[in-house]
């Protein structure tokens, strides 16, 4: 066996989680529609960059096609100071009730990008992202808000540019669409997108139109997965389909997301398309929940709905369809026919026109595998609250730590890695936290080859009678 010079070998003595906790965390691998038809790789293989200024951030994100892994280590805003009232109107700083803020911005993200936050510091403050006819995009571990963004309203609210006159778009945190007139109609599609472990919020105010969606998908959006995100303190949360004419077969998976204090609607609102909604936790939402509208097909599986007004409903005249599988409702006020509150709390049935068709034109398990990450419904509240949002994933996009392994002897070779030492087991994790393989060493002290089929970042957990070690490898 020919040994090569190590590309990168790092022993991490201290991780975000201890090794014992790491082994118990859920599998954060990409799942759902984003894995289909070629999968979603983002900026894999491209340069790893860490922007320090807004101009640098804009330069990397808006590059049309060059692959980049863009590490976000801090808060970004435009740094252009102003003051607004509660409606977003720019006012003088001494106006009663004036709020100090900065002007907002929209960045149009290009294809082949991974935008990943490091730790808990990544924050896009009044900076929205637009995905317009682009593909192969990963956004992970970033906090988003449009709170106090300067805006103006004619028919609807629009973000106000620093000149105080021009408007630059909707105040969405992330907007995915495919209607650019500069693109040939047959190529108007946004596809292969994974949004994971992000946080989205604004504020709880009476003016429900002040901010737009936290995450909206319109037009021809395909192969999108939204996972382990935290949505809170907002009115109109998520949208799939902008109206009854937005007739595209959108393919979207929502899983392990936490919805809290959404006081308006759209958790999400679904039109047309195929939507797999599993292991989500809705808590304390006083408005309208999952809204099954015109010709949507939804597979709603192993979700937990608690202390919410109307967690699931439709509009029967629009023929929205859904299959309900092993969901739990607790202390909810209005429920579809055929389900009850698990705690025995009183509820009212939906009106007849708020019902939906109990059918679905697809079965997710026939399209992709997810049984190994499917959480038992009763465990959803604890698991989703603990692991959704930012700061829960390990940053594999850079190499930090000690320059050599102090105890573990790990070598890069042409076929994978060789582990030398007295270990019981070596577990290999991918860069998204999924288990690649488990190698049983049985304390024999021999050298063992662990084959790796694909170049990338790996985390090796080495278990021994004297304790555990964790090694980070780039193969």
Question: How would you describe this structure to a colleague?
Answer:
This protein is mainly β. It has 2 domains: 360 residues, Pectate Lyase C-like (3 Solenoid); 74 residues, Immunoglobulin-like (Sandwich), CATH 2.60.40. It has a 10-stranded parallel beta sheet, covered by helices on one side. The protein has a 9-stranded parallel beta sheet with strand order 4-9-12-17-20-23-26-29-32, with helices on one face. Strand 40 and strand 41 form a beta hairpin.
Provide keyphrases for this structure.
475 residues; mainly beta; Pectate Lyase C-like; Immunoglobulin-like; 10-stranded parallel sheet; 9-stranded parallel sheet; 41 strands; disordered N terminus
Layout of SSEs?
Layout: E1 8-11, H1 19-22, E2 47-49, H2 54-61, E3 68-72, E4 75-76, E5 81-84, E6 99-102, E7 105-108, E8 113-117, E9 123-125, E10 127-132, E11 135-140, E12 143-145, E13 151-153, E14 157-159, E15 174-177, E16 190-196, E17 199-201, E18 215-217, E19 221-227, E20 230-236, E21 238-240, E22 251-255, E23 258-265, E24 269-270, E25 274-278, E26 281-283, E27 288-292, E28 297-301, E29 304-306, E30 310-314, E31 321-325, E32 328-330, E33 334-335, E34 348-349, H3 380-387, E35 409-412, E36 416-420, E37 425-429, E38 435-440, E39 447-451, E40 457-464, E41 467-474
Relevant CATH superfamily of the largest domain: Single-stranded right-handed beta-helix, Pectin lyase-like
Strand content: 35-45%
**Cross-sheet strand order for the largest sheet:** 2-3-8-11-16-19-22-25-28-31
CATH top level label of the largest domain: Mainly Beta
- Apparent shape: globular
Q: Any idea what the CATH architecture of the largest domain is?
A: 3 Solenoid
Number of helices: 3
State the helical fraction.
under 10%
Largest sheet: 10 strands, parallel
The separation of the N and C termini measures 16 Å
Output the CATH topology of the largest domain. Answer: Pectate Lyase C-like
Multimeric state: single chain
Round the mean pLDDT to the nearest integer and report it.
90
Specify the structural class: mainly beta
Provide the number of structural domains.
2
Q: Compute the gyration radius: what is it?
A: 24 Å
Tell me how many strands there are: 41
Low-confidence stretches: 1-23, 399-407
């Amino acid at each position: 066996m020919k040994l090569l010079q190590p590309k990168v070998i790092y022993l991490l003595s201290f991780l975000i989680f201890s090794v014992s906790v790491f082994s118990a965390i859920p599998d954060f691998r990409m799942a759902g529609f984003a894995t289909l038809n070629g999968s979603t790789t983002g900026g894999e293989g491209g340069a790893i960059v860490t922007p320090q200024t807004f101009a640098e951030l804009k330069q990397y994100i808006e590059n049309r096609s060059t692959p980049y892994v863009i590490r976000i280590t801090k808060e970004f805003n435009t740094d252009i100071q102003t003051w607004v009232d509660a409606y977003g109107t720019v006012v003088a700083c001494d106006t009663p009730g004036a709020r100090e803020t900065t002007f907002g911005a929209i960045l149009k993200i290009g294809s082949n990008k991974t935008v990943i936050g490091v730790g808990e510091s990544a924050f896009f403050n009044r900076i929205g992202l637009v995905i317009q006819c682009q593909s192969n995009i990963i956004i992970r571990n970033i906090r988003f808000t449009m709170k106090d963004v300067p805006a103006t309203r004619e028919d609807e609210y629009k973000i106000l540019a620093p000149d105080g006159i021009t408007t630059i778009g909707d105040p969405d945190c992330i907007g995915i669409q495919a209607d650019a007139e500069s693109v040939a109609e047959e190529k108007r599609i946004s596809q292969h997108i994974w949004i994971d472990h992000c946080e989205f919020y604004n504020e709880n105010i009476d003016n429900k139109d002040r901010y737009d969606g936290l995450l909206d998908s319109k037009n021809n959006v395909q192969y999108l997965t939204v996972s382990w995100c935290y949505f809170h303190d907002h009115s109109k949360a998520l949208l799939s389909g902008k109206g009854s004419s937005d007739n595209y077969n959108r393919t979207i998976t929502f899983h392990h997301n936490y919805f809290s204090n959404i006081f308006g609607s759209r958790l999400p609102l679904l039109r047309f398309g195929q939507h797999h909604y599993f292991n989500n936790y809705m808590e304390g939402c006083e408005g309208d929940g999952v809204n099954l509208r015109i010709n949507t097909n939804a597979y709603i599986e192993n979700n937990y709905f608690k202390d919410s007004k109307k967690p699931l409903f439709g509009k029967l005249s629009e023929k929205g369809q859904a299959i309900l599988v092993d969901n739990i409702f607790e202390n909810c006020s209005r429920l579809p026919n055929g389900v009850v509150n698990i705690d025995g709390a009183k509820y009212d049935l939906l009106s007849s026109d708020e019902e939906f068709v109990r059918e679905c034109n697809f079965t997710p398990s026939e399209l992709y595998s997810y049984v190994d990450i499917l959480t038992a419904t009763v465990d959803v509240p604890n698991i989703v609250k603990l692991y959704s949002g930012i700061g829960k994933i390990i940053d594999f996009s850079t190499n930090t730590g000690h320059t050599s392994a102090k105890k573990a002897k790990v070598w890069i070779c042409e076929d994978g890695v060789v582990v030398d030492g007295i270990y019981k087991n070596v577990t290999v994790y991918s860069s998204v936290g999924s288990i690649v393989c488990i190698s049983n060493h049985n304390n024999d002290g021999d050298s063992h080859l662990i084959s790796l089929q694909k170049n990338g970042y790996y985390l090796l957990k080495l278990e021994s009678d004297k304790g555990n070690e964790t090694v980070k490898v780039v193969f």
